[in-house]
Please model this.
Amino acid sequence: MDLKRLEYFLMVADYGSFSRASSVIGVAQPALGRQVQRLEEDCGVKLLYRHGRGVSLTPEGEIFAERIRPLLTGLAMAADGLSATERPLTGSVTLGLTPTMMSLMGLPLLQKVRETSPGIKLNFLTGYSGYVHEWLVDGRLDIAILHDARRSQHIAVDSLATARLFLVSHPEQARSIGVHRRSSIPVRNLRDLPMALPSRSHGLRRTLDHAATKLKFELDVQYELDTLTLMKDIALSGIAHTVLAMPAIATEVRASRLKATALVSPQMETRLMIATSLNRPLTRAGRAVLDQVRPVLQQTIDTAAIPLHLQLH
Model:
C-alpha cells in the first residue's frame, strides 16, 4: 500500500471533508479523491461514507484507521530526535486533567517528570471534561485526560483506564436508604434520591443519564454543579447524594466521613482517555511526558491506602 494514500485517508477522515483536507495538505481535491478511491480498491471495501456534510468513516474504515494510525505515527517518529539524542529534553508541556485526576496523579507525575527530564517544564490546567476538551481543541493543551472522550477531527484518543462509579452518601443518609451495610445498589434505586451531579457537558453525567433512560426513569438532580469540591461538600452535609469514582472520595471514605456504594445492574463505569490534539503536533518533550502517564497512574493505584477500583488499560 502507498504510504501517502494512507496519510491522505487519515487526513480526510480526521477533517471529515475532502475539501478541508485538500486545503490543509495542499493537494487538489479531485486528486485527493482519486488517491482515497484507489486505497479503497486496494482494501476491497468502502472506507468512507460520502454525504452532503462531508465524509464519515464506515465501520470498516474505523477499524482500518485504528490499525494504521499507530503505524504511521511510529514511522513519523522513527527519525525524530536522532540528531538530538545526546541533548537533554527541554520545553514546556501543558497537561489538562479533571479535578479527580489532578488530585490523584498531578503531584506524582510532576515529580516523575522532574526526576527523569528536569529540563521539561510541566504545566497543569484543571477542569471538568467538557472544559478540558475545549482547551485541547483550542490548542491550549498538549495532552489531556478526559472521561469517555471520542476521536474527532480535532483530537486523537487512547484508552487509559476504567473507573467504577459509586453512589456517595453521608453515613446517616446511607443508613436511611438501607445501604450502610451494603457494598452495592442497583442503578434503578437512584430513582427517588436527591442528587448533586455535574452538568450534561461532563462524561460522568452523560453516562448516568444514559443508564437511567435505558431503565426508563429520570434522575432527581436537585443540584447541578461543575465543581467537585461542592459536590462532595453537599454529600458530606447530607443534603443530597452524588456519584463519583473512588479516587475522588478515597480520603473521605477511608475516614468514614462518606459511604461509597457501588452501582450495579448494570455495573456503572467511566472510561478515562488520553487525548492529544491533531492540530498541535506533540513535541519530544510532550511524548516524554505522555510516556510517564501510565506508569505513574499504575504506581498510584498500587500504593493507594484503599482500593481505587481503577483498571488500567
